[in-house]
Amino acid sequence: MIGWSLSYLAALLILSGLFSSVETAFISLSPGQVSALAMNGGKRGRLVQKLSERPDILLTTLLIGNNVANLGASALTTAMTIRIFGNAYVAAATGILTLTVLVFCEVSPKQIAMVANESLCLRSARMVWVLSWLLRPIIWIITAVSRSITLLFAGKEKQELTLENLLHHVKAAEGQGVVESYEEEMVRNIFRINDTPVEAIMTHRTELFSVDEDTTIRDAMDQFIESGHTRAPVLKDDQEHVSGIITLFDIARAIKESPESHVKRFSTPPYLVPGTMKAHELFFRLKQKPIHIAVVLDEYGGLDGIVTREDVMEEIFGELYDERETQTKDPISQDPDGSWIIQGDADFYDVSDILELELEHDNRTHTVGGYLLENLEQIPEAGTTIALYEGTYTILETQRQRIVSVRFYPTPKEED
User: Fold this and answer.
1) H or E stretch including 407?
2) How would CATH label the architecture of 332-410?
3) Does pTM surpass 0.70?
4) 198-317 in CATH: which number?
5) Residues 34, 67, 41, CA angle at the centre, nearest 5°?
6) What are the structural domain ranges in the chain?
7) pLDDT tens digits for 318-374?
8) Which residues are CB-neighbours of 275 under 8 A, at least 6 positions away?
């Protein structure tokens, strides 16, 4: 009789450990793992996905099984102890059972499950599915009561996965060495261009290489060679309106045919876009058409700047240089004294990420220079100091009433 009781007790403890490990395995599955199992795990993988989509039923099933096993083990241990040793040893037997359950049925199985969660979920999926149907009436009652209590105290159901949470997961993966820092940055940039307007990444008309439509092909060739550019917008009249796009290849082909002809004759119609268009939308348009450059218009229909495929790609991969370009200064660099040298055209979000600051700004602010002008509200001059809650900015250089570079001293963080 005692032998059978011990066999039953061992079986209950094994069931308790099994339910504990399966619970942890399912909870530790990431959305990516669930999708991968559904695609590559066959029927069992798809079953894992179905169970993961109903966490209320899944957890209730496993908790019912775990608690029944633990309560059964406790009752059986108590009965065996009274029968063999008497009531005086019930407390000691309960303590031993508690320690056994804690080590062999809770902690150890859960640690194993976190390491081998995918394999364990695949192996246990059918068992959990069958139990969930056998216990469905009880599960419905428990789930209804639990949901009511949750809504009463928490006020809402479980939060869905958001973009912010996803980026936190990627950042955590970088910290654990799962992804490289440059990969984490690219993932963040890919999602960020969905909210980045074209005007934030364009080359402004004040820094633009362009050709007048009345320029001869011969003169245009000289201008292209001197500038080092291969494409340029063709301007007309007031230098505010673009009549076409001309490339160095067009110039080279035309110079044999008619070197004294005007550029306008060989230019192609411009591809016009508003500055408010999102960068990712422009990128997909440029992919679908044989267009390398888009002309950005301001709110009055005049030339605001230009954007190329390379400009959009740089928003994801970082600055790209060809053999004719000289590498510019790092947009954000730190000095030994703890201050930061920031270029005025540095991306606003890059500064927020690198310096780990939450900066309040207007939605149209895309660069540090624009952010400071928003707070300065006057013509910037070298030496001007701007004190804000995150720190102090000192303008180092200006050009054409534009901030070129600043020195930033962050406000010391208060120690907890």
Assistant:
1) strand 402-410
2) 2-Layer Sandwich (3.30)
3) no
4) 3.10.580.10
5) 20
6) 2-153, 166-195, 198-317, 332-410
7) 776 665 555 556 778 888 888 889 888 887 777 877 887 777 666 667 788 888 888
8) 197, 198, 199, 202, 296, 297, 298, 299, 304, 305
